[in-house]
């Protein structure tokens, strides 16, 4: 795009050269270059460029350095690169584009309303977007009619957490860049977030007390869809809890990882699974869900999560946590 320099990718490992070649085959029309830095022979170069981790991919675009924390697959990296090339703020000008905006529910997104692209307030917003591009999606409109449908006031920005019904308005408008950046940094761990191929390592490393609550569910499968809807309900009820973050993994997105996950966690991913995983040693405990006709309710899942967070349920615990157990206890009390 006009006024935007082409990205350069610097790779710290010879192992990624084949990956680079595969990506370059599909980038005939783009001015994108790959560079290789030998971490032993070229330490001074790596330090000067700000390359901190060996065997990592860094993307240089304009004045930003973006570390790629995704799957080492050519198609995933290629898709990520195309996102990098796009402008950091997407402008919404009509109802069709607004409909597309509303269909994005799996990602953090922001929407701002400004007088025009020349507005100083939009410039601050655009500068903030560059800090998070392309991992967080920034949108803006200059149309009063669109802003009215979004209940946005002039120079106001709304923050949308994934899978939540309503956005949160960033306080203190009009904002400078630091206001927006600070708000995002305080709210960039959603209650429910999807593990994406382009950011899988970044998400996995963002654990809470070295644990993750993980839900495997295929969105295209009826049972998986049901579990996902239950997860959304639980997340919406607990969105104010900073210590709760559930990672949703759709096995369809990671076909090569399924055998590894099944072997490591001792689970069958042909049906939905919900558990808590220790990120250090991969110990885990999983909610019993063998009966496909009897998925846990939102209340049962909420209770199970509370037990995880209070330490009653923990990775390595061999207790059978069937979600019907609480109902059995209630029946005993009624007798």
UniProtKB/TrEMBL annotation:
Residues 326-335 have a biased composition (Acidic residues). It is found in: Sarcoplasmic reticulum lumen. Keywords: Calcium, Muscle protein, Sarcoplasmic reticulum, Signal. CDD domains: PDI_b'_Calsequestrin_C, PDI_b_Calsequestrin_middle. Residues 313-335 are annotated as: Disordered. GO terms for biological process: regulation of skeletal muscle contraction by regulation of release of sequestered calcium ion. One of its GO terms (cellular component) is Z disc. Residues 1-21 form the signal peptide. One of its GO terms (molecular function) is calcium ion binding. It comes from the Eukaryota. Its main location: other. The keyword Glycoprotein does not apply. InterPro entries: Calsequestrin, Calsequestrin_C, Calsequestrin_middle_dom, Thioredoxin-like_sf. PANTHER family: CALSEQUESTRIN (PTHR10033), CALSEQUESTRIN-1 (PTHR10033:SF14). Calsequestrin is a high-capacity, moderate affinity, calcium-binding protein and thus acts as an internal calcium store in muscle. Belongs to the calsequestrin family. This is Calsequestrin. It comes from Sinocyclocheilus grahami (Dianchi golden-line fish).
């Amino acid at each position: 795009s006009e006024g935007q320099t082409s990205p350069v990718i610097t790779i710290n490992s010879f192992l990624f050269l084949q990956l680079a070649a595969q990506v370059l085959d599909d980038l005939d029309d783009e001015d994108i270059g790959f560079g290789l830095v030998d971490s032993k022979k070229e330490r001074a170069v790596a330090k000067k460029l700000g390359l901190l981790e060996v065997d990592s991919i860094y993307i240089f675009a304009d004045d930003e350095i973006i570390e790629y924390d995704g799957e080492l697959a050519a198609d995933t990296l290629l898709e990520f690169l195309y996102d990098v090339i796009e402008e950091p703020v997407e402008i919404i000008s009509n109802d069709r584009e607004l409909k597309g905006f509303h269909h994005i529910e799996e990602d953090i997104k922001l929407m701002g309303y400004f007088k025009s692209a020349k507005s100083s307030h939009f410039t601050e917003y655009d500068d903030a977007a560059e800090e998070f591009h392309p991992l967080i999606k920034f949108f803006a409109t200059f149309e009063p009619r669109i802003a009215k449908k979004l209940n946005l006031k002039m120079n106001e920005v709304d923050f949308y957490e994934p899978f939540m019904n309503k956005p949160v308005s960033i306080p203190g408008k009009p904002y400078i860049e630091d206001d927006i950046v600070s708000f995002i940094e305080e709210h960039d761990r959603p209650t429910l977030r999807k593990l994406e191929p382009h950011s899988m390592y970044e998400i996995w490393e963002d654990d809470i007390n070295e644990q993750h609550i993980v839900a495997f569910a295929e969105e295209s499968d009826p049972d998986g869809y049901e579990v996902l809807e239950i997860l959304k309900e639980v997340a919406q009820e607990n969105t104010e809890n900073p210590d709760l973050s559930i990672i949703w993994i759709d096995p369809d997105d990671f076909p090569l990882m399924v055998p590894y996950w099944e072997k490591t966690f001792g689970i069958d991913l042909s049906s939905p699974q919900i558990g808590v995983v220790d990120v250090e040693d991969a110990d885990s405990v999983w909610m019993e869900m063998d009966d496909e006709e009897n998925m846990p309710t939102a209340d049962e899942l909420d209770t199970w999560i509370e037990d995880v967070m209070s330490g009653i349920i923990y990775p390595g615990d061999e207790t059978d946590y069937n979600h019907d157990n609480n109902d059995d206890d209630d029946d005993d009390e009624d007798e």
